[in-house]
Automatic annotation (TrEMBL):
Its cofactor is Mg(2+). Belongs to the MoeA family. This is Molybdopterin molybdenumtransferase. It catalyses: adenylyl-molybdopterin + molybdate = Mo-molybdopterin + AMP + H(+). NCBIfam families: Glp_gephyrin, molyb_syn. Catalyzes the insertion of molybdate into adenylated molybdopterin with the concomitant release of AMP. Residues 195-332 form the MoaB/Mog domain. Pathway: Cofactor biosynthesis; molybdopterin biosynthesis. Its EC number is 2.10.1.1.
Amino acid sequence: MTDAWSVDQHLDAVLASVRPLDPIDLPLLDAAGCVLVEDVLVPAPLPPFDNSAMDGYAVRVADVESASEEFPAHLTVAGEVAAGGAELPTVFPGQAVRVMTGAPLPPGAQAVVPVEWTDGGAGGGPATAMTPAREQWVRVFRPAAEGAHVRTRGSDAPAGAVALPAGAVLGPPQLGLLAAVGRSTVPVTPRPRVVVLSTGSELAPPGEPLGPGQIHDSNSYMLTAAARQAGADAYRTAAVADEPETFRAALEDQLSRADLVVTTGGVSVGAHDVVKEALRGEVDFRRLAMQPGKPQGFGLLGAARTPLFALPGNPVSAYVSFELFVRPALRLMAGHAGGALHRPRALACLASDAPLPSPAGKRQYLRGSFSPGEGTVSPVGGSGSHLVAALARADALIEVPEHVTEVAPGSELTVVLLG
Ligand SMILES: Nc1nc2c(c(=O)[nH]1)N[C@H]1C(S)=C(S)[C@@H](COP(=O)(O)OP(=O)(O)OC[C@H]3O[C@@H](n4cnc5c(N)ncnc54)[C@H](O)[C@@H]3O)O[C@H]1N2
Ligand code: MOO
């Protein structure tokens, strides 16, 4: 039997075998979460024209320079501009023009006084809102400096500036910016399409009663959700029985619609290890120096060289394998790079009453509950790779290095933070 691969060797081999998907143009909302493949420039100044930041009056600075509540400036109201207004009355000396937030600044105006700094034309003290009908005159109680409450053309982004650089991840603010500069579609790396296929003659779908020896298929739900959380368009298929022909047919059926395939089960040394049997020669099956997640298969299938991960069937093994190997591969295919491929990590001190044993020569990933405030992590459940209930209570994986055989309470360890 060949030597076991380290976690890092396997991850490196996986990441060296996959590449970002070919870019496509997507409508903005379909591109949410995707990675931009080229710089997007600002085609015209943003905002495109000088406009008012307040509901109030566009004025000339000299007309209000000595205004106070005791000695207000009296201005004639020469017109109104609402947001979207195209006809702009000029503000001549001694005049004011009603302007609403977002309205283009009329010619002649140098500043905007908010309505609260005026009587709103009502003849009393400071107003609280603009009147619906246009008043003849307005009294202004305060001076305004040149440019006050005016958002100048190009003050957010000048024409020709890089709105977003290649590599930017398109979250809500980035999509908002693309829309603001007039883009309706954007070139991105698409979300990988993932098919998740569980194997096991013992598997029954959730919602159906269990027969003798049966268990519900949980892996395909867990991993499809994990793939979606990683940013993929992921679909699960019905679990297939431990028959190589059935498995092969189900796989062929799915391959054309997948950029990446994940299978679970059938990769160990049993008499019915269907995935191993059906894909021998096409997929590398290897043992990793890791617990859980020892048996792993990875290969590039068919003419399209579609990456296939054959993960172990034990639910915790499958999930840990997904987080450590499949997620980074999916993120790379989706155009992410560097640290964005991986889950965030932190250092934490082990909070536990007793020392934790760990297998010699294997990197162990225990399930844990991380307390960022205290900087501690507590083990959740034991090391058994069937402990799916404990997995559901965990929010971190506790990484115990290969050379460590016992972790004393208080020891500092790396934790992988799960989302
Ligand atoms: N003699 C040996 N036996 C085993 C070894 C070994 O080295 N020598 N390795 C063990 C380890 S470690 C793992 S992990 C498992 C991997 O087994 P398989 O990938 O072949 O998976 P199965 O045998 O099909 O299933 C294992 C376990 O998980 C349950 N399972 C499978 N699929 C699902 C699913 N979709 N949902 C929920 N649970 C599932 C299945 O019922 C089994 O209990 O092999 C060990 N054995
Ligand atoms: O390593 Mo298996 O992957 O623990 O249960």
